[in-house]
């Protein structure tokens, strides 16, 4: 008989809204007009916000960054070198026949060592997006 896994609380809409608000505050403090997406472990979009001044593509960018961080369970900032020409993921196909978006700004969310979701930020420079997402995840605790 196998030992049951310890239950880990999922990422809730309340958590997602807290991540969103924290990222929004960090973006405003950095002067970045951003779009922010939060997905749960199943890839369901729980929260989304696009600054009125952000370009429309920033919304899709933030969502794809969150999905990439979730699928690979790694901050997208750590994957940038892998998708450059000659990198390990340069020709990685996707089910959607579109490339995954690996630019910095997607960060997985863990609880008790288990992946429960991810946040993606788009709109600023990659380093700014990564810092905003990392700041938001740190405030979730």
UniProtKB/TrEMBL annotation:
InterPro entries: GlcG_carb_metab_protein, PduO/GlcC-like, PduO/GlcC-like_sf. It holds the Pfam family HbpS-like. SUPFAM superfamilies: GlcG-like. Gene3D superfamilies: Haem-degrading domain. It comes from the Bacteria. PANTHER family: PROTEIN GLCG, SLR1406 PROTEIN. This is Heme-binding protein.
């Amino acid at each position: 008989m196998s030992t049951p896994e310890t239950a880990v609380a999922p990422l809730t809409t309340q958590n997602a809204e807290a991540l969103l608000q924290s990222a929004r505050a960090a973006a405003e403090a950095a002067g970045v007009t951003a779009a922010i997406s939060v997905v749960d472990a199943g890839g369901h979009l729980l929260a989304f916000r696009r600054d009125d001044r952000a370009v429309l593509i920033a919304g899709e960018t933030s969502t794809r960054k969150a999905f990439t961080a979730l699928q690979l369970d790694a901050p997208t900032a750590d994957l940038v070198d892998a998708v450059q020409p000659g990198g390990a993921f340069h020709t990685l196909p996707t089910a959607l026949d579109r490339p995954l978006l690996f630019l910095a700004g997607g960060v997985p969310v863990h609880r008790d060592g288990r992946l429960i979701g991810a946040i993606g930020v788009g709109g600023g420079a990659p380093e700014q997006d990564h810092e905003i997402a990392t700041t938001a995840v740190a405030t979730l605790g």
